[in-house]
Amino acid sequence: MARYIQLTLVKRKVSCTALLLDDLAPRTCEAVWQSLPLGDDAFHAKYASNEVYTLIPPFAAEEPGLENPTQFVYLLGLQPLGPCRPILP
Q1: pTM for the whole thing?
Q2: Using CA of residue 30, residue 35, residue 36, residue 41, what is the dihedral sign?
Q3: What is the dihedral of CA 37, 78, 31, 17, to 10 degrees?
Q4: Alpha-helical segments (H) within the chain
């Protein structure tokens, strides 16, 4: 069964939905899923075009390890969380 997370910029009242790619990074997706809800202030990566990021402390009890070394999205902080494709609502 597909799992989705909702990403929201509260002050801007904007949300999007992202599909967790359990088939490509099951341990990483499970670590993210078990740590929800997560959140903090968002920052715009001025020189990286359409990128927004947030800084959060480590959230998994144990590092999930490298699962798909070809592509990373630094979605919820400075730790690589694995590949992610946004699904537009």
Answers
A1: 0.66
A2: negative
A3: 50
A4: 26-35
| Domains of the chain and CATH, by start | 3-87 (2.40.100.20)
10 Å CB burial of residue 76 (0-12, 13-18, 19+) is buried
pLDDT band of 89, cuts 50, 70, 90: very low
Residue 25 CB neighbours (<10 A): 24
Average pLDDT, the chain: 75
Closest to 68 measured CA to CA, from 37, 19, 22: 22
Q: Amino acid identity of 20?
A: L
Q: 60: which DSSP letter? A: S
Tokens 């069964």 sit on residue:
1
